[in-house]
Each structure stands twice: as structure tokens, then as C-alpha cells.
Design a protein that fits this description.
Order of helices and strands: EHEHEHEEHEEEEEEEHHEHHHHEH
Largest sheet: 9 strands, mixed
Structural class: alpha/beta
Number of helices: 11
Number of strands: 14
Shape: globular
Distance between the termini: 43 Å
Number of domains: 2
CATH class of the largest domain: Alpha Beta
CATH topology of the largest domain: Spore Coat Polysaccharide Biosynthesis Protein SpsA, Chain A
Helix content: 25-40%
Strand content: 15-25%
Low-confidence stretches: none
């Protein structure tokens, strides 16, 4: 029988998360989806644990740990389904979390990706950082969410219970149309981890696709399962990948000026890291820029081969200014007329 939905959990040394959360995924999903764990060359006993305790779960073993981007690319090429559900191992799913999203995506072939509502696993009435109620970016590439601006997380009071078009869907729980994911080449493997899903959604929007948020589906996310929230490596990946992403995808309108302003803002962030005692984070910013500039020549070639548009749901203001100087701490504080 053909598989319509494949839930794919990427695992790297995450036996404890599999032990805690995989039973719930099986309970709430097995009637609607094939459940697969793609292992990224773990050095713990994850694979042996799965074979012993969850023999009904298909295991794909990647030959090396290529991070989130390559790990999923390699695994998904081996799966036949209409829809892939990319699910972090540290997510607690709930009853009926698959059906409403699939129904929404079935209603419009232009919907390439969709995410559910993400709440915090530990603070269960609040939105979770990595996705909340749908992702957006500002004109300089800073990502944010309905329900989360920078480190400010809102309590879920039903204010985002509407189906909505968004800019990006979180990779923590991302439903994606399988044939289009493969056709687009999947994630950019240079990213390794962090922001590859934003880059993918941006590229898809440049091809005329839409990205949606479906509040009828809800999951709870632990977050920070691979790297701690304060990590120089996370700083490096975020800064490097974000700059590569905006160079690849920004529309030509004021392109050079936006790139320059973004570099200035990164410099300000590096100085702030230094004054806050985060010397390794400051050095991570410098390293990220060095790698970014080293790749500029290749990025220029890639940019010339793609079409770029002023895509929908980008916030055409500077979120750093809005948040830190104008004290706009909630998504609803932002001017809705400034979303293209």
C-alpha cells in the first residue's frame, strides 16, 4: 500500500528522547503514518534500543553525521510518501496532530510546507521558541514568530488560533510536500544545522509556493536538545547560515544596502557579546563572517541562477529597532501593514 504520510525523526545520540517521546508518536500516529527514525551515525545505543523496544519502527542509518540538513536529505531520498513530517526527537505530539495539517495541505497544491502550533514542553501554556505559531523574517533576515520575538515568549491565550500563511515553518515539526522537497534538492547541506528550513521555505516562496500554520494541530517541544541555548557554536551557525541565506534569497530591491546594514548589525551584536562576557560568542561572529566572505564568489554564481521576488509575509522593517528601541515585545505590536 502506498504511504501518504511518513513521520521521520532524525536522531543523533538521542536515546533518552526516543525513550520518552517515541511511544507517544506511535500511539497518536501509527494509524495515519509510517514512522521512521533516521539515525545520524549515533555513538550511543539508540539503534540497538530501537530494534529491541520498537521493532515496528523503520530505521534508516545514515553513514555519517551530516547535521540536520544532510541527515534529512539522505534519509528522505529513501522514503516514498506524499508528505514527509520532519519531527524532532524531543517533541511530544498530541491526539489528532496529523489529520488537520494534511487536510489543509490537500486543499491547495501550492502549499508546500505547514507547521502546527508549538508550545513549550516545560512551560506548557507558553509558545515554544523554535516555531511558536508560525515563522517570519524582517527585511534584514532576522527570524521571529507569532508568539515569539527574540527571547520574549507569549502565553497562548488563543490569540493565534487562526489558520494563517507564514514565511517559514519550523524544522522542529515541519510537514512538507514530498515530491517538491526532493525536486528542490531538499535542504542546503552547507548549513549543517539551524535556519535550513527558513532557507528552504524562502526558496519555495520564490517558486510560487505557500507556507502555512495550522493551529488545530499542537505539539510540545523541549528545545535545545542538541546544542544548549547559550552556545558559541550555535551563535556561529546562526550568524553564518543567516548571512548565506539572505545573500542567496533577498530580492534585488536595495540588495546591497540591506547586506551592508546586516553586517553592521552583526558587528553591534559582537560588541554586545564582548561586553556581556561572551568572548567566544564574539569570536563566533567573526568566524561566521570569515566563512561567509570566503564563499561570496560561489554565492554570487548561485544567486545569478535563481529568480528572486519580493515574496509574501516578510516584515519590511528592522525588527532589532522595533524590539529593542521601540519596545515592541509581541507579534501583535508590529504594524500589520508592513508585512508584504
Amino acid at each position: 500500500m502506498d504511504t501518504k504520510v511518513a513521520v521521520v525523526i532524525l536522531n543523533w545520540n538521542g536515546r533518552k528522547f526516543l525513550e520518552d517521546f517515541l511511544p507517544g508518536v506511535i500511539h497518536h500516529s501509527s494509524k495515519e503514518a509510517e514512522i521512521i527514525v533516521a539515525d545520524n551515525d549515533s555513538s550511543d545505543d539508540s539503534v540497538a534500543f530501537l530494534r529491541t523496544h520498537f521493532p515496528q519502527v523503520r530505521i534508516i542509518q545514515n553513514e555519517l553525521n551530516g547535521g540536520f540538513a544532510k541527515g534529512y536529505n539522505d534519509a528522505l531520498k529513501q522514503i516514498t510518501a506524499d508528505y514527509f513530517v520532519l519531527l524532532n526527537s524531543d517533541i511530544e505530539v498530541t491526539k489528532n496532530w496529523i489529520k488537520p495539517v494534511i487536510e489543509l495541505m490537500d486543499s491547495d497544491p501550492k502549499i508546500i510546507a505547514c507547521q502546527p502550533k508549538l508550545r513549550s514542553y516545560y512551560d506548557r501554556n507558553k509558545f515554544e521558541y523554535a516555531g511558536a505559531a508560525g515563522g517570519f523574517i524582517d527585511k534584514y533576515g532576522y527570524p521571529f514568530c507569532r508568539g515569539r520575538l527574540f527571547q520574549t515568549l507569549e502565553e497562548d491565550q488563543g490569540q493565534y488560533d487562526d489558520v494563517a500563511e507564514i514565511f517559514w515553518a519550523t524544522g522542529a515539526c515541519m510537514f512538507v510536500r514530498a515530491v517538491e522537497f526532493i525536486r528542490m534538492g531538499g535542504f542546503d547541506e552547507r548549513f549543517f544545522a539551524h535556519m535550513e528550513e527558513i532557507d528552504f521555505c524562502w526558496r519555495a516562496k520564490n517558486r510560487g509556493f505557500r507556507v502555512m500554520y495550522c493551529p488545530a494541530s499542537m505539539v510540545y517541544h523541549v528545545g535545545g536538545g542538541t546544542l544548549p541555548k547559550r552556545s558559541w557554536r550555535k551563535t556561529y551557525l546562526n550568524i553564518r547560515n543567516n548571512n548565506i541565506m539572505i545573500f542567496k534569497n533577498l530580492p534585488p530591491h536595495h540588495f546591497g544596502l540591506k547586506i551592508f546594514y546586516r553586517l553592521v548589525l552583526d558587528g553591534v551584536a559582537a560588541i554586545k557579546f564582548l561586553f556581556d562576557g561572551g568572548i567566544y560568542d564574539m569570536l563566533a561572529v567573526a568566524k561566521a563572517h570569515w566563512v561567509y566572505f570566503y564563499r561570496i564568489s560561489q554565492l554570487r554564481k548561485e544567486r545569478k541562477s535563481e529568480k528572486h521576488y519580493r515574496v509574501t509575509k516578510m516584515y519590511n522593517r528592522n525588527l532589532v529597532y522595533e524590539y529593542f528601541l521601540r519596545r515592541k515585545k509581541k507579534f501583535t505590536d508590529l504594524d500589520p501593514s508592513r508585512f508584504s
